[in-house]
Amino acid sequence: MDQHIEEFLDYIQYERGYSIETVNAYTKDLIALEQFMTSEHLTLDSMKYVNTRALMNELYDSNYSRLTVSRMISCYRSFYNFLINRSILDDNPFNQLVHPKKTKKLPTFFYDEEMASIFNSLEPSHRFYERDLAILEVMYATGLRVSELTSLKIEDVHLDIGYIKVTGKGNKERIIPIGEYAIEAIKTYIDVRSHITESILFLNYRGEPLTPRGLRYILNRIVERAVGVYEIHPHKIRHTFATHLLNQGADMRTVQTLLGHVNLSTTGIYTHVTKEKLKETYMKYHPRQ
């Protein structure tokens, strides 16, 4: 089974272009599947629908969220389909499973004054000020995912015309415009790191490509000094990018393209946030409230 898992993970990463985060998540999911099958004395071929139901019950009893369980079902279904396509198995016991209904959770975002506080917390005398400023400016200007930001190359940044080329999920490319603040921050940072030949744009203190974990560390260090801001993560800045655009009147189709969403319904969650903003403004300023 280990060999099949390894081949499947290679397939989704190198042929299907899944992000490293998804590959890592699927790796853990398949380890959980293997452990369950061992405990139940099952093989890939002997796994039946009734066993998949037992697995789901075990996951819920272990307090896995609905979102995580839904991802695990997708992982196991894809894994079995992979084996069927290679004539290793004949049936997929996970096909009959229904994804759990997802709980609607509004994305959190920063208000304008909170973003200003984050930018103001950067210290020009800090050793990595130029890099950290460029990271913040690019994230807020583009709404990039973590994997997209850390894989961004210098050759992908076209400062003369104000665009960056991004390779997103499924190796799909998209072009995103950037404003003067981001352009100037990137120019300054590139000048600072001009003696380093590494093609990846954002580097760690060793001059090596910044990892997702390293990015989170940088953001946490920044927020420690920001007034009125107590929590930050890369996706929250992505949420902020989308929410601020919609609040300022951008149409959802444009935001969908910028975010790299395949389905408009994925972008639609941000309309709930903007409606909350409208309600808040109404309740604050209407004379009869």
Can you characterise this structure?
- This is Tyrosine recombinase XerC.
- Belongs to the 'phage' integrase family. XerC subfamily.
- The active site is at residues 145, 169, 235, 238, 261, 270.
- It is found in: Cytoplasm.
- Pfam families: Phage_int_SAM_1 (PF02899), Phage_integrase (PF00589).
- The chain is mainly alpha-helical and 289 residues long.
- The protein folds into two domains: 2-85, Tyrosine recombinase, N-terminal domain (DNA polymerase, domain 1); 112-285, Intergrase catalytic core (hpI Integrase, Chain A, Orthogonal Bundle), CATH 1.10.443.10.
- Helix content is 56%, strand content 4%.
- The chain contains 13 helices and three strands.
- The chain has helices at 2-15, 20-39, 49-61, 66-85, 112-120, 129-142, 146-150, 180-192, 212-223, 234-247, 252-259, 264-267, 269-285; strands at 157-158, 163-167, 173-177.
- A three-stranded antiparallel sheet has the order 1-2-3, with no helix packed on it.
- A hairpin with a 5-residue loop joins β2 and β3.
- α1 (2-15) packs antiparallel against α2.
- The longest helix is centred in the first third of the chain and has 20 residues, at 20-39.
- It is globular.
How are the elements arranged and paired?
Layout lengths: L1 H14 L4 H20 L9 H13 L4 H20 L26 H9 L8 H14 L3 H5 L6 E2 L4 E5 L5 E5 L2 H13 L19 H12 L10 H14 L4 H8 L4 H4 L1 H17 L4
Subunit structure: Forms a cyclic heterotetrameric complex composed of two molecules of XerC and two molecules of XerD.
Family: Belongs to the 'phage' integrase family. XerC subfamily.
Organism: Abyssicoccus albus
